Amino acid sequence: MTTGYVGRFAPSPTGPLHAGSVVAALASWLDARAHGGRWLVRIEDVDGPRCPPGTDRLILAQLEALGLVPDEPPWWQSRRGAAYAVALERLLQAGLAYGCACTRAQIAAAQAATGPGRMRHGELVYPGTCRPDRGGLQGRVARAVRLCSTDPAGRPVWIDWQDRRLGAMRQNLTGTVGDFVLRRADGLWAYQLAVVVDDAEQGITDIVRGEDLADNTPRQRWLQQALGLPAPRCLHTPLVLGADGEKLSKQNGAAAAAVHDPVATLQQACAGLGLSDPALAGAGSRADLLDRAVHAWSLRWGPAAGRPSSAGGPDAGPVPTVA
């Protein structure tokens, strides 16, 4: 079966793959294979200072050891600055983005002056100080560039989308996120802009990633609409938790995946995806296990699984509504 499906795994090379990121990689690979599509790997290294040298190659070697080999050569976001600059200029020329001169301290002070600051993942939601309709930079030098999170009439925007696993999702983008950064004060490209531009250029139709990243979807859909780009479908998988009940991550010291025993590592990842059953446990080789896992995934998430199919083209796009 050959379809127009194109999926991707996009790790940030801040450390080697651990059990949680192996689950994410396997899920995206399985979904591509279950739909007869292509599977790509993109190294999301726009935040260069956080990426130790050689970690990207280590991740690619881990994937190869697990039998998860991309169908095309990988992309590196650090080599894609020209494409991001073109997209940013389009948004600036359209009046959808603007320069921001505020420091973190100034944002906190502005929030304090108007009452309790709205916190989001430890960050203050930007109050819109430098928005053009509020006076703009007023002679100050722009440090970052932000995207407007309201509609052209200045009204709040709600983003609605359908997740293949989580179902109907909704977020008040304006109130929950606010005007978010596209280019940082240190000159680095923001993740949201880079991923949207790359997904479109690579023709990504389906994004399969961890549930903790579902919160990125509204910002990416708003950006896709602003740039006139298609919105890939999404399936957000369950998180892998550590012994302390927290998400397994590089930040909390998750150990590198033990790819010297690929069958055991893949079986553990399958269990994290709810695919553990006697058929998988009886696999005698890496290739055998992957074949069985594709079949098990197809029964749950493939075109014939009785769920919304992901083989018929991307979503029509974000569904913005105004409050």
TrEMBL record:
Protein name stated in the entry: Glutamyl-Q tRNA(Asp) synthetase
Annotated transmembrane regions: none
Enzyme class of the recorded protein, top EC level: ligase
Cofactor(s) required, per the database record: Zn(2+)
Short sequence motif named 'KMSKS' region, residue ranges: 247-251
Keyword Flavoprotein listed: no
List of residues binding L-glutamate: 8-12, 44, 191, 209
EC number: 6.1.1.-
Domain of life: Bacteria
Native source organism of the sequence: Sphaerotilus hippei
Functional note: Catalyzes the tRNA-independent activation of glutamate in presence of ATP and the subsequent transfer of glutamate onto a tRNA(Asp). Glutamate is transferred on the 2-amino-5-(4,5-dihydroxy-2-cyclopenten-1-yl) moiety of the queuosine in the wobble position of the QUC anticodon.
Record: residues binding ATP: 250
Region (Disordered): 304-323
Ranges of residues in domain Glutamyl/glutaminyl-tRNA synthetase class Ib catalytic: 8-256
InterPro entries assigned to the protein according to its UniProt record, in alphabetical order: Glu-Q_tRNA(Asp)_Synthase, Glu/Gln-tRNA-synth, Glu/Gln-tRNA-synth_Ib_cat-dom, GluQ/Sye, Rossmann-like_a/b/a_fold
